[in-house]
């Protein structure tokens, strides 16, 4: 009939070819993040310091980039290059803090794990029921993030392995989503979080989404059985302390040896104990003179006998007088 319009056929969006218009800065960032995601997933706990730095770098850079790119800063709309530069600078600062302060790095690692689990739960729930208010996703994200962050401080190795494997798999999935369908999956997740209507996902979007749990489970198994087996992030700190203690002990031993041998300049030398002398140790001059006369043979016999009979010595130890001639051999009398 005339005047009736033919119904427009429904267009299958998934059958259409995806228009890929890549920009330079996002492509470079995604390429770097893809490499970091592989390191995260399979060598996360082994490269503990590097992972702590990358956690702060990625978290700070992504948050600041979204704020600068979506919002107007000082009444001016920033370009993508300017937003990337600002976010990179602040991300470097956050990375240094998380690397140098271990508790902050562990808290950040647990926070990332909680946020990922909460996002997965909210996206799965949005396909079955509609959330009433935006505060439900925000509360879920905050509660799960803080809970996993506190648990990461308690069970450090287990939560670090889980967080790095899951986060690395999520980064790889996001990069694959950009190169295949220019962030169509990421846009769908973002719309689910802010409770906005979103077009249904295509089959290849579900294939990309399946990379996340599969790669995350593979990363957990590889880390727990291979790369993280027999390794502890506290060994580095303990070994440094042990080296310092051993070095201090060696130095103390060397100092004691130098003091004992007296080779150390300026060391105190103890004086020898002086020999105690008594007044009786000093011989009488007359006794010495008589000895000399007897040795030389110049004295007379009568004078020698008189001197020997009248010369006495006082013994201070026993308190008695002893003749000096008692200890001397009998004099020779010449006729």
From TrEMBL:
It is found in: Membrane. Residues 30-224 form the TM7S3/TM198-like domain. It is a multi-pass membrane protein. InterPro entries: TM7S3/TM198-like_dom, TMEM198. The chain crosses the membrane at residues 24-43, 50-67, 82-101, 106-128, 134-153, 158-180, 203-222. PANTHER family: DUF4203 DOMAIN-CONTAINING PROTEIN, TRANSMEMBRANE PROTEIN 198 FAMILY MEMBER. It comes from Scleropages formosus. It comes from the Eukaryota. Keywords: Membrane, Transmembrane, Transmembrane helix. Its main location: membrane. GO terms for cellular component: plasma membrane. The gene is LOC108939443. The lineage of its organism: Eukaryota, Metazoa, Chordata, Craniata, Vertebrata. Belongs to the TMEM198 family. This is Transmembrane protein 198.
């Amino acid at each position: 009939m005339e005047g009736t319009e033919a119904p427009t056929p429904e267009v299958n969006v998934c059958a259409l070819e995806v228009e890929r218009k890549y920009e330079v800065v996002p492509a470079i960032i995604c390429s770097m993040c893809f490499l970091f995601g592989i390191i995260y997933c399979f060598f996360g706990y082994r490269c503990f310091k590097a992972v702590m730095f990358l956690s702060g770098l990625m978290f700070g850079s992504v948050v600041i980039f979204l704020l600068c790119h979506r919002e107007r800063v000082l009444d001016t709309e920033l370009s993508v290059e300017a937003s990337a530069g600002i976010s990179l600078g602040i991300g470097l600062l956050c990375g240094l803090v998380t690397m140098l302060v271990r508790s902050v790095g562990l808290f950040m690692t647990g926070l990332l794990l909680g946020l990922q689990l909460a996002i997965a739960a909210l996206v799965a729930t949005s396909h079955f029921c509609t959330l009433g208010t935006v505060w439900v996703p925000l509360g879920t994200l905050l509660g799960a993030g803080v809970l996993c962050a506190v648990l990461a401080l308690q069970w450090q190795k287990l939560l670090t392995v889980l967080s790095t494997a899951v986060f690395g798999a999520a980064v790889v999935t996001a990069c694959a989503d950009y190169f295949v369908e220019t962030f169509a999956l990421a846009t769908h997740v973002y719309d689910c979080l802010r409770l906005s209507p979103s077009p249904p996902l295509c089959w290849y979007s579900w294939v990309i989404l399946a990379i996340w749990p599969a790669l995350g489970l593979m990363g957990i198994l590889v880390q727990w059985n291979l790369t993280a087996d027999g390794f502890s992030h506290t060994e580095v700190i303990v070994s440094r302390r042990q080296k310092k203690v051993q070095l201090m002990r060696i130095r103390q031993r060397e100092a004691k040896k130098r003091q004992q041998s007296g080779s150390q300049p300026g060391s105190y030398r103890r004086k020898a104990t002086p020999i105690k002398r008594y007044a009786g140790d000093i011989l009488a001059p007359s006794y010495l003179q008589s000895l000399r006369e007897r040795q030389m043979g110049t004295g007379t016999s009568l004078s020698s006998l008189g001197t020997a009979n009248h010369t006495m010595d006082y013994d201070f130890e026993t308190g008695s007088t002893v003749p000096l001639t008692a200890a001397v051999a009998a004099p020779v009398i010449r006729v």
